[in-house]
Amino acid sequence: MSTVKIEIKEVSKSYGEKGPTVLKDVSFNINHGEVIAILGKSGCGKSTLLNCIGGFETIDQGQIMLDGTAVTKPSKRCIMLMQNYGLLPWRSVRKNVELGIENSNLPTADITKRAANYLQMVGLEDRANALPSELSGGMQQRVAIARALAIQPEVILMDEPFGALDTFTRYYLQDELKQIQQREKMTIVLVTHDIDEAIYLADRILIMKPNPGEIHKEVVLKLPKDRNRADADFQHYREIIFNEFQFTHDKAAIEFNI
User: Which N-terminal stretch is annotated as signal sequence (predicted)?
Assistant: First the structure.
């Protein structure tokens, strides 16, 4: 039986007393080991919601709970992975991966071993001594993933993590992420505006609408973990979401699993 990892209860947020309402009455749960994609157009509040889940921004109303404890500030239990990689250019690949655990109580040898383990997991063990400037964008993102994994978080928050990459590199990293998630049993919350990425990676998709940001629909993906973008079932969900965003001429009502 699945256990609830994150609870979002009637969360609302505005920027200032007279500022716009960015989030309004947002409520949903995320189970342990689940991959949730938050999908929506630019400006719908999805990145703000992700920042609130991570404790990087405060909320005006409601509650965000991680394992039953209110989220009020950032924690190493819940790590954010950004599109811009966030690597320190003067540090080697290995030293960048070690960054998040340098202030832990681990012995130096254990820190080095853990960094090496996660670099191997993302296929970059042979580039451990390279500088970020010597790597492609895809490799830099893999370093960022290894750094996040080295902290051994319970939840990884991902804000358009592959958005700046070319199509083939993005597909490769999506496969890498899927394999790592299944191996490590992590809970992942993915913000994206890429419909195919959401269908390929997620167990459920939450579609947001803007002004103010609200959860408009939930789509439960009844697909195997190993997915093929060309399969009819994959295309079926793609059509459902395209219709929801009115990207096609067919405006017929579509049933969702809610």
Answer: none
